[in-house]
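PROTEIN FOLDING TASK:
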Amino acid sequence: MSTYYVDATAGSDTNPGTSEGAAWRTLKHAAAREFRAGDRLLLARGGAWHEPMVLNGRGDPANPILLGAFGTGPRPAIHGGETHAVAAARPVGGWRISGLELTSTNASNPTRKIEGGTSGVFLSQEETGHGFVIDDCRIHDTSGPGIHFRGRGAPAPMITGAVIEGCEIWNASCGIQFACDGSFSTEFFPDFRIAHVDVHDIGGDGIVPFCSRDGVIEHCRAWRTGLGVDPKDHSPVAIWYAWSLRSVIQFCEAWDNHTGGRGADGGGFDLDGGCTDCVLQYNHSHDNDGAGFLICSWDPALWPCTGCVTRFNLSVNDGLQNDYGGITFWQATGCLTYNNTVIARKAPALKFLSDTRDHLIANNLFVADTAGDVPLVKSGFDVRANKFLHNLYHRTGGAARFEVPGLADGSFRLFAQHISGVREVNADPLLVDLAKPDVRLKAGSPARGLGLRIPAMGGVDFGRRPLPDRGPVDLGCMAMREDE
């Protein structure tokens, strides 16, 4: 295990590179060496390199190769220009990229369109690489995704156990993207973790680990995504999965996200085509153009979304531009949606965009906080192939209204009969403060203890309060009450 130093101002490529005072000067010279497990390549703080860093060599998860910083001052900056700032000449694994500033250029993509461009970190793999870590980096002004992992060839694990943590990404076409060529298998990117990442001011999507399984996105924030004008058939969402198996999005926040100029999507969170047994939980979506939580598939025959769970989430004032609901279904089947709280102000609390079926919709609070004539549930399709159990509906500015086919009027009474709902309730849930919002339940709330206990429903609520071990549960995303 060896440590090597690079200094953009005081270094020289004729130096041995083995001490701060005898550092190399260029990244090209450093990249000519094949690094081994446990080696460290450290860049001088305050330095800037207008050339790419090409990774060469393999570490392992327990003993990675570190590309990091030394000294004092601003983080080292790699400006890739018309190339990726950090990339690999061949398949690699076991690298940690830490404490750097990375850019490429927006010159070839000034509107930050979704397709194409160069990245802060680009890793294309045709064989398995284990343990790739990117942490504490600032990545911005790239024409492509800030971080882009790509799997090539037949379905197989290409990047396993990846960790992206503590980074900020902005002014890019996409924040973080995992993608593959051809097969769209869920095998390419297993066992990843994306945590404590901020993504903002993005042309397209925020965080999208496609072609993955058994991963987690947690404690991340995404805002002002979907700002570009995309000429292709693509509509952005802040944080979402497609072609994913058993993956989770939790404890994240998404707000002020947009449609990329096409009018569709533009929401906070999405479980989309090819998602199986994935989970959205403990997330906060608010003030987005599109849906707070979208459960859907663009091709249900080829890539169904099924067996997914949406629970203990909060949506406030979503659907600002396209009338998507706080929770929206489109062409997904057999999913569980329970113990969510939706506060709708302009668009419906719950919306169906297709003739979807076999969903369990239970224990939710659907509130229209408006004097406007906003329906709580809206659909152009028959919704009776889904189960509605123990949900509460309320409109603060007048009678609750429902807009679905088959109703003689939009009243709650006819809606509850129409869906054959079980213990469906039309009442004020007595939330502590709708304006903040503080969605705890006041004393005397009809939502207390009205919930159906669902097997394996999760250990905590939106506020991370443990759920009771047995018996009934409260409706909505919060088990914590005002008087507790």
About this structure: Helices lie at 27-31, 412-419.
